[in-house]
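Entry:
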Amino acid sequence: MAVGTMRYWAAAKEAAGTPEEPYDAATLADALLRARERHADSGRFAAVVANCSFVVDGDPVGRRDHAGIELTEGGTVEVLPPFAGG
């Protein structure tokens, strides 16, 4: 298990009701499961996070299996919803 910080951006931040919170998990999949459980009363959190991209310690996760993404002690998970730009 590792302890670090999950940072929520835009719609994920709104759905979580906080800009960041700690994680205590071995993998990204574990951290996201616990976050969904913690925010089960949100109504939007799980749906928003299902469409997010993730950056772990500065490395974009892309399409890799979240269960294979190991989290580090003192690390950071960025939770990034889709956005439009121009």
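DSSP finds three helices and five strands in the chain.
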